[in-house]
Design a protein that fits this description.
heterodimer; A: 397 residues; alpha/beta; 6-stranded mixed beta sheet; 4-stranded parallel beta sheet; B: 253 residues; 9-stranded parallel beta sheet; 9 strands; 15% strand
């Protein structure tokens, strides 16, 4: 059973000074309806039953917590991998889309929209829409459509309409803008499934709760492996931060658990081609929430860069901004090069091809030394199939 | 008295025009404002361009992108406007998204507006609740009127709240849409205009979104105090020279 904890976002939707709902009035009725109902709906026994049933029978949960023996030997510490890559559709994204499609049904919505960068969230959304027989429109930057052709094809096969975002830089942030505009234009019948722990309140909290199944499972699985519920470290990569939010959730208040957040440094934090928001960002407003955000000194949102499309976002979720500001989480940044090496290393040592996003989390072992008895749980948020072309080009395979 | 309030007391239907500062050329701002006033426009909304304008359709998005490329910034706009009150008397409103104002500093931004002679602000992504709790005092200290939007979906109770927080006019969004996305008004709009009119709000209403010509201007102002034109004017500037602003204004009324 997914236990719904009443955690850290306050009544006004803030994590410390971050969060809130900075939305045009046109979105107010939809966001307000969601705010009033989401906790109530998520606590309904029937909702929980359906959600957990689908996670088990359709997604394939629980995902294994795997002791990575050879990787552990190499770095002389105890490394566990939370295998979100083994979920249906290949990443953690489906946990949230299952939750939100059930939410949308209970709100009486008959049309779903979503944004996607690399296409993983788009595929996860198209999948649950097919499952429920609901119309699905996915916004995707024109540039991303060109470089993520297999995921575009997947979405189409699943019956979704993929609409190119032609504005701005034509990538994830613009796809998000277009999805928001669609929602403004269709205020009655449509639910917007945001894919990350971002957006106006209650989205960051709702997405986090749907993803919190990750840390809930880690607790009992670690008990079986190590006879303890709490690891010494939990590690996850952060773009907007949904897999990280789910990985941390049940450990946020456990002071003996260290939290590590891994951002994409791109070509290097100071190179001008980076997505390390905690270092390069400043408090600001993006897509309806106040958070840390990469921007010009004039307040224009800038374009991030990472080899990994899933980390290529100019902000982080407000919960993570709060974790960074308060020092609850240690933020590290990993370059393209180090992430790619770590990805290939996991292939060779453990027989697992990781998503490049997840490879960033794996790369910290070259930067940080852990004690031999430390238990380090790393979220392996997705599988690398979608990244084959990037791996092929990068390593000239 | 704030110029907006004075203007609202005039016994006529008001025509307000929006344009994006820095478009089509970086230094067109002052000329556009002067020409609009000269041709009888009652009020002007000066758009401070933003990289991610969520509530705007493609026309205003494109003009914003071009304006930013042309080099428009908050500081540049303030510099262009610093002597504007030597030549222009009608109310001037800055319309922009909240993040650039937040980065400038809300108090500093408001102070600068006051010094220049800006009368009000429209900030689509600063909700009335957040304004009321955090920024109202700052705006009022500098004598600025903040203008809020309502839509056909805004609940009556919230409209009453917006009315109580407002001290100028209410920006009535004609239909559920981003800017520049519809053609003409139907029965739904008429019903909505009538419903709002019957609420007897203390603030007059000015209709925006979907007004582009004489017919839509007349429809919108049948119940409301005035109407705002944005995308249609940007399109005009895109296709014509800034020298021909008079022909655009004359086509509206």
């Amino acid at each position: 059973m997914t236990k719904i904890m009443n955690y850290n976002v306050n009544e006004k939707g803030y994590y410390g000074e971050f969060g809130g709902a900075f939305i045009p009035e046109m979105l107010y009725p939809n966001v307000e309806e969601l705010r009033q109902k989401y906790l109530e709906v998520m606590a309904e026994p029937e909702f929980l039953k359906e959600f957990n049933q689908l996670l088990k029978d359709y997604v394939g949960r629980p995902s294994p917590l795997y002791f990575a023996k050879r990787l552990s030997e190499k770095y002389n510490t105890k490394i566990y991998l939370k295998r979100e890559d083994l979920n249906h559709t290949g990443a953690h994204k489906i946990n949230n889309t299952i939750g939100q499609i059930l939410m949308a049904k209970r709100l009486g919505k008959t049309r779903i929209i979503a944004e996607t960068g690399a296409g993983q969230h788009g595929v996860a959304t198209a999948t649950v829409c097919a499952l429920m027989g609901i119309e699905c429109v996915v916004y995707m930057g024109e540039i991303d459509i060109a470089r993520q052709a297999p995921n575009v094809a997947r979405m189409k096969m699943l019956g979704a309409k993929v609409v190119p975002a032609l504005s701005g830089s034509r990538t994830l942030k613009d796809a998000t803008n277009e999805a928001i505009r669609d929602w403004i234009n269709n205020p009655v019948d449509t639910h917007y499934i945001i894919g990350s722990a971002i957006g106006p309140h209650p989205y960051p909290d709702m997405v986090t709760r749907f993803q919190s199944i990750i840390s809930e499972e880690i607790k009992w699985q670690l008990k079986e492996h190590e006879n303890r519920e709490n690891p010494d470290y939990v590690v996850a990569c952060i773009g907007g931060g949904s897999n990280a939010a789910g990985t941390y959730y049940h450990f946020l208040h456990e002071s003996d658990v260290n939290i590590i957040a891994v951002e994409a440094a791109g070509l290097g934090v100071d190179s001008g081609e980076s997505a390390a928001t905690s270092v390069l960002g400043k408090e600001g407003i993006i897509h309806g929430c106040k958070t840390l955000l990469m921007q010009t000194k004039d307040g224009q949102i800038t374009e991030p860069y990472s080899i990994s499309a899933g980390l290529d976002y100019p902000g982080v979720g407000p919960m993570h901004a709060h974790l960074a500001k308060t020092g609850r989480a240690e933020f590290m940044s990993i370059t393209d090069e180090d992430a790619m090496k770590a990805g290939l290393e996991l292939c060779k040592l453990e027989g697992i091809i990781p998503a490049i996003e997840s490879s960033h989390a794996l790369a910290i072992f070259e930067q940080k030394t852990f004690k031999p008895n430390d238990v380090v749980v790393v979220s392996l948020s997705g599988r690398g199939d979608k990244d084959l072309e990037t791996y092929i080009k990068y390593f000239k395979l | 008295m704030n110029r907006i309030n004075t203007k609202l007391q005039e016994n006529k239907k008001l025509l307000s025009i929006y344009f994006t500062a820095g478009f089509p050329n970086l230094n067109d701002t002052v000329k556009i404002i002067q020409d609009l006033e000269k041709n009888g426009v009652d009020m002007i909304e000066i758009g401070l361009p933003f990289s991610d304008p969520l509530a705007d359709g493609p026309t205003i998005q494109d003009s914003s992108t071009k304006a930013l490329k042309n080099g428009m910034t908050t500081e540049v706009l303030f510099n262009q406007l610093k002597n504007i009150r030597e030549s222009v008397n009608i109310p001037l409103i800055i319309m922009g998204y909240f993040n650039p104002m937040l980065q400038y500093g809300v108090d500093a931004f408001c102070k600068k507006c006051k010094d220049i002679g800006i009368d009000g602000l429209i900030i689509p992504d600063l909700p009335v609740d957040v304004y009321h709790d955090n920024y109202k005092e700052i705006f009022e200290k500098h004598g600025l009127i903040n203008i809020f939007l309502i839509t056909p979906q805004t609940p009556d109770e919230r409209i009453r709240f917006i009315d109580s927080v407002s001290n100028g006019f209410i920006y009535m969004v004609s239909s559920a849409s981003v800017t520049g996305s519809q053609s003409g008004f139907g029965d739904d709009q008429k019903e909505y205009f009538e419903r709002i009119s019957n609420m007897n709000l203390k603030n007059p209403q000015i209709v925006g979104f979907g007004i582009k010509d004489n017919a839509t201007f007349n429809q919108a102002t049948e119940y409301a105090k005035g109407a705002i034109i944005g995308s249609a004017f940007i399109k005009f500037l895109n296709d014509n020279s800034v020298e021909n602003i008079d022909s655009f204004v004359k086509s509206i009324r």
